[in-house]
Design a protein that fits this description.
2 copies of one chain form a homodimer. By secondary structure, chain A is an alpha/beta fold. In chain A, 48% of the residues lie in helices and 11% in strands. Chain A has 15 helices and 9 strands. In chain A, strands 1-4-5-6-7-8-9 form a 7-stranded parallel sheet. A two-stranded antiparallel ribbon of chain A has the order 2-3. In chain A, helix 8 (146-155) crosses helix 9 (163-171). The radius of gyration of chain A is 19 Å and the shape is globular.
């Protein structure tokens, strides 16, 4: 038993005391205490109140005993903070008042000054770092990757087809590169502020990168992601890169500079390891399985643990965010199962 | 030059006179003549009027010179026709008044009697077979695969997470199997009626199968798809199976009994061929690329033709349906390009 965080050890490819587990969107609408603390205001309002944001970050740590906390925030916080004009509409997602359509819109994206623009985020991180045990539950900071943030700015809201953002990148690759460069700088400033305030790891959410073809990903999304990752290398905290539907681009994502690659439920982790090579993996229980009850979800979790054993490090997680209708008791049962059985399942799998 | 349909030849792995091309949703909102013919009624109303349904089926044939027509219809037509209570809501998709939740709901799904329940569909096919040249533009009939149709019945409408349908299949695999069996029989009856009336090929749309993990696909979707495919083998027309986001399940789809596998834009066709083996492929230009204009879309189409050359047959198509905001002139330019350059690009690629 070392005095090292199991989560951070697994991110570094070192041997953790037990298989670490946390859940994307573990703080959120599935928790009754979250709904009570949040009240009826918008999510950006809640993020703007450090006491509330810290409280909802801590709720899943208390309830589940997960191995990491993730800052309660949103990928559009930096662009909202510099006044682009974007809000998170309940039941819909980020919506931009005036979408990004032309070069003139670049002027609406000035650099982030964390102390001025997001003092509440820095304050939230400081509260959390005081409250959390850095060994049992390090804090993960995060930002959106340029492509995914740009998709909201250009589409004006959530999209199924990403037709506007794809048209822009193909029609005006220079403008697209400039937009991604600005958004990379925003992500860098946003995450750096979180890590300097005490966050011990970072995740870059390129949630919708899987909507791109492999060729488009390499040309239009990977370069700015690489910039973020290489710049943040100096922070010396583990860097996780995640997206959904990324089966065809996993090998590209592995070249981004990320230490850990997050995988959705579509790609079994043993298959993902073959594509990714020498990187620890994070994932990948289907969040929808949690709605089938603890027994079925538990059996699927065992399968995830078995397949994850082949990676040079495995952080158990869902393949995407917790669904709002999830029963918290099911997530609690999964945490207990991963802690109790994770190492044994991996050992058995590797000796088989 | 043979007197054989290029589309049917490619489906059979034979040498076509030119590379065939058609577009999923080629009849639809992107065409001004479609909007004029359809008027303001619901899509199910338009499908119920043979003269209108035949007219909108023919519109893209006239305008684009595609190598196949596809019946103007919808995957929920059979369940709507037997009175399940489902409509297609504009801008949203199929919505069920009372979703499928329990075994008692199986009684709401009686067998289809085509002559009684869908005489208008049979009539539409007969009009079309009279109008269309069977060599230049064979008619494709279609149905929804059991999983994808079931997803609408169980979720009650379009879903991003498929959480209800996944919970049902895991919690009650017997009920799920019974539901899929009933839906397989509906697909079989629906397609058989179309082929007996003159359709010369069939496509089974398992559009959302890519939301399943490979294990879930094998266990919960493939068996009923196999039943449909094997039963329809006796019709002796080419059988195409299509879904989006199917990278991880392509090899399973190839075992379904389908002759041709449709591929979305995420998997380059040369990669798809490695997973699928000895089947002709259909696809896979990203529909969003068409919004970037004819020149950019044309260059991407050439890349699709190059990669498709490695399959034992290639039917050019989009990777999903035509987007409503598509400029028809771009699609026309793509058809001309595929016809003019397709064979040469494939020949060059294979001799390289």
């Amino acid at each position: 038993m070392t005095n090292q965080s199991p989560f951070l050890a697994a991110c570094r490819g070192e041997e953790p005391a037990h298989t670490p587990v946390w859940f994307m969107r573990q703080a959120g609408r599935s928790l009754p205490e979250y709904r009570a603390a949040r009240g009826t205001g918008s999510i950006l309002e809640a993020i703007g109140q450090p006491e509330i944001a810290a409280e909802v970050t801590l709720q899943p740590v208390r309830r589940y005993g997960v191995d990491a906390a993730i800052l309660f925030s949103d990928i559009v916080v930096p662009v909202a903070a510099i006044g682009f004009g974007i809000d998170v509409v309940p039941g819909r997602g980020p919506v931009a008042e005036q979408p990004f359509t032309s070069r003139a819109d670049l002027e609406r994206l000035r650099p982030l000054e964390p102390e001025v623009d997001i003092p509440h985020v820095i304050e939230t991180v400081k509260i959390l770092v005081n409250e959390l045990d850095p060994v049992s539950t390090p804090l993960i900071g995060f930002a959106g990757a340029p492509f995914t943030v740009a998709s909201y700015l250009v589409e004006g809201g959530p999209s199924r087809t990403f037709s506007k953002v794809k048209a822009l990148m193909h029609r005006d690759p220079e403008l697209w590169a400039d937009l991604c460069d600005v958004l990379a700088d925003l992500a860098i400033s946003f995450i750096t502020a979180q890590v300097e305030a005490g966050a011990q790891a970072l995740q870059l959410f390129d949630s919708w990168a899987g909507a791109l073809s492999p060729h488009e990903y390499e040309r239009f999304a990977l370069p700015s992601t690489k910039k973020v990752m290489s710049t943040l290398e100096g922070l010396r905290v583990p860097r996780i890169l995640f997206g959904v539907g990324t089966g065809e681009i996993l090998s590209s994502m592995a070249t981004s500079g990320a230490d850990v690659v997050g995988v959705d439920w579509r790609v079994p982790l043993d298959v993902a390891t073959k594509r990714i090579g020498d990187h620890p993996l994070q994932g990948n229980l289907d969040p929808a399985i949690c709605l089938a009850g603890a027994e079925i979800a538990g059996n699927e979790a065992r399968d995830v643990l078995r397949r994850g054993a082949h990676a040079p490090g495995h952080i158990f997680n869902l393949g995407h965010g917790v669904l709002p209708e999830t029963d918290p008791d099911v997530l609690k049962a999964i945490v207990d199962l991963v802690h109790a059985e994770g190492r044994d399942i991996a050992t058995r799998e590797l000796s088989a």
